[in-house]
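Teaching soon. Invent one.


***
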Amino acid sequence: MTPQDKPGTARFAAPSTIDWDALPYGGDLFGEIHLSETAGAVVAGARAGEGLDPKPSDTPLPGLAICGVAAAAAAWLSEHYGFPIILLGLLVGLSLNFIARDPRTHKGLDLASRTFLRLGIVVLGLQVTFAQIGALGPAPFAALVVVMIAAGGAAMLAARVFGQSKFAGILAGGATAICGASAALALYGVIGKDRLSQAQFALTLVGVSLASALAMSLYPVLASELALTDREAGFLIGASIHDVAQAIGGGYAFSDAAGSYATIVKLARVALLAPVVALVSVAIGPADGARGQPIWRRLALPWFIVAFLAAVTFNSLIVLPAAIGKFALIASKAMLLLAVTATAMRSRMDLLMEMGWRAAVPTLAATLASFFAALAFAKLLL
């Protein structure tokens, strides 16, 4: 009798190879992942065997549909909880960035982040007239230009001191100086993703949106504590808060007179979007893909900036009905929201996390510089 046959001694089977594929799957995460990978490989192999490209078709509908749902969710959250809609679009898009791993979404997300961006900026021109800029007066307008230069210079200096790209400084300074996310999107179209990563762009958008949201609540309180007049408070708020809606809302939070003046100041900043983008385009030169083009092509303004100027001119010459102006504003916000959401969905979170706190310093420096410069001119000139 062998030891294994003795009473009270357990019998152990010799180890053998287990056929894991033959076993039923449990309801665990590994099983679900394995099933999805196996199914994907089978489908790709079948398509390749049939002579088909394993990549999906070029239709933009999947990406546009997902981007539209995410933007609608951001709009609903903004309406019900009072958070800035652009900031929510960024956060929702970043939380869904894993969707961009699917190639079927790429064409739609690229369409939203580029074409809708440009169309949104063009339609934004219908909110500004040359008469509004003229109503500001020469001295306040000159002060406004100096405030914008201070914001851009502070961002460039901070980017250099903290080891960031000069293009990150240009983006943060321009977004802070002009009109927040809209200006950032326009400037990024000139800078190009070959010179500035989408992760840095997304981080700048988050920083600008957060700073604008905080300023809308904080600046009216500071203006009251500093005993500013309605005109002084309107200039401070209109010249230093980034986003258009939040600058106007912050002005009216102080008083109706301050809100009206803040609106004029802010719209004057929006009108300077085209000249600033043109100057940046000439100063930084063409992107890598445009170096072989003729000089007249490289110095030409982007088409959407030319269309923006045309929209401002049209709105200045022809008085549009209030209903059309309101619809144009909603359409512009919707397209910019889609562009921001799509850009966030195309951003890689791992790169965003690796950038660290230094990448946010240019936006912070530009915000502080614009506030203190605007406050100084408000006390000196008004």
